[in-house]
């Protein structure tokens, strides 16, 4: 039997997305001799994305959960955990929080839940039913961390996570992979319809309601009417349930020839090299990994003043903050960079320095590694002998 402790990562679906990307990065980078890893998807996984896992010993399991309560999924997870015998269950977000009791009954000694953002149908965390479920689950977890200070405060104040179970674990970015474009290097990724003289405003992220891409499209349309003298272009990169409707909105505004919505891509670092400004119009966020990638790539960020975005974007230094769901304010902020490329360059350079100083990949991996170590040391007396359950 392998004596390296196993961590089971429980996620709704393994697919292209910020949370999923950073989870895989941590798995790939954590020392192989410290922990083994397995990923359990409540629903299913995208094989193309799963190929981003570079460690050969990582198994991916799918429980094929159906919509609704699906009590059979709890039983299926219990059986799988009994077979895998992990030291840690690490569940992610509201969609997986309810499986803490199944892990406890399966004898998993350490149980962790991470708040990486709220449900897209409840971006501000006001849904009483959801919050009641979160509170109900707190006793079944040894740690309920958040990936932004704003989310940690909400966890403590609204969900009533006690101090000894609360942590803040910031996202990290691979600053080796995401770097500013070298002057003179080819900037346009494959399939990109834009030219070298275009000014490209872009964003990367899952196309769902909480990201509010519709406001970005409206702001872009406003900006084009205000600056007809500039070859403005828009890139929205990512897949999701609202991609088709967003493409329809683009068409209805007559923007098909100046907007590019390619869906999910694996060449995000190169795509960022084709942008001049990065926009983040979300109505709720944790620590925005895509904004950090843009900053590491030397781009100024125009983001909304919600969740963890103000923690990342230093207003007037690395970018600009605007109210959520306000296309007029968003258009005005974007116009500032259109008219002042030297300001864009200065804010982009400051953004990269901020990422290197505060949001390194090594620091993120070390923080998660430290969390697992401290919880296992506290809960596991000797290998195979466990302390009592939920506190």
TrEMBL record:
GO terms for molecular function: glycosyltransferase activity. Keywords: Transferase. The keyword Transmembrane does not apply. The keyword Cytoplasm does not apply. It comes from the Bacteria. Residues 16-177 form the Glycosyltransferase subfamily 4-like N-terminal domain. PANTHER family: SULFOQUINOVOSYL TRANSFERASE SQD2 (PTHR45947). This is TIGR03088 family PEP-CTERM/XrtA system glycosyltransferase. It comes from Pseudoduganella dura. The lineage of its organism: Bacteria, Pseudomonadati, Pseudomonadota, Betaproteobacteria, Burkholderiales.
């Amino acid at each position: 039997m392998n004596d390296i402790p196993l961590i089971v990562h429980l996620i709704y679906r393994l697919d292209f997305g910020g949370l999923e990307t950073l989870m895989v990065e941590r798995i790939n980078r954590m020392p192989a001799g410290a922990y083994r890893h397995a990923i359990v998807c409540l629903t299913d996984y995208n094989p193309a994305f799963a190929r981003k896992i570079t460690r050969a010993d990582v198994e991916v399991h799918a429980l094929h959960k159906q919509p609704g309560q699906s009590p059979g999924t709890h039983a299926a997870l219990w059986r799988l955990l009994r077979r895998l015998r992990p030291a840690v269950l690490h569940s992610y977000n509201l969609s997986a929080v309810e499986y803490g009791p199944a892990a406890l009954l399966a004898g998993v000694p350490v149980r962790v839940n991470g708040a990486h953002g709220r449900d897209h149908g409840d971006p501000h965390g006001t849904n009483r039913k959801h919050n009641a479920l979160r509170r109900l689950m707190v006793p079944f977890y040894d740690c309920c961390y958040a990936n932004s200070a704003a989310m940690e405060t909400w966890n403590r104040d609204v969900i009533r996570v006690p101090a000894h179970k609360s942590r803040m674990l910031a996202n990290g970015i691979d600053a080796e992979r995401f770097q500013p474009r070298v002057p003179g290097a080819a900037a346009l990724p494959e399939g990109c319809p834009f030219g070298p003289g275009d000014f490209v405003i872009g964003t990367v992220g899952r196309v769902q309601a909480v990201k509010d891409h519709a406001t970005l499209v409206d702001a872009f349309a406003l900006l084009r009417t205000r600056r007809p003298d500039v070859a403005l272009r828009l890139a929205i990169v990512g897949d999701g349930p609202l991609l088709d409707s967003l493409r329809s909105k683009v068409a209805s505004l007559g923007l098909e020839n100046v907007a590019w919505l390619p869906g999910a891509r694996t060449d995000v670092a190169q795509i960022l090299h084709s942008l001049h400004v990065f926009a983040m119009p979300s109505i709720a966020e944790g620590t925005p990994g895509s904004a950090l990638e843009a900053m590491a790539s030397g781009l100024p960020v125009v983001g909304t003043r919600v969740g963890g975005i103000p923690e990342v974007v230093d207003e007037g230094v690395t970018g600009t903050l605007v109210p959520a769901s306000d296309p007029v304010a968003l258009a005005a902020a974007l116009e500032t960079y259109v008219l002042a490329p030297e300001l864009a360059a200065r804010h982009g350079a400051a953004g990269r320095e901020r990422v290197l100083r505060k949001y390194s990949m090594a620091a993120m991996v070390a923080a998660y590694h430290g969390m697992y170590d401290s919880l296992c040391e506290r809960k596991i007396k000797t290998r195979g002998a466990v302390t009592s359950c939920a506190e």
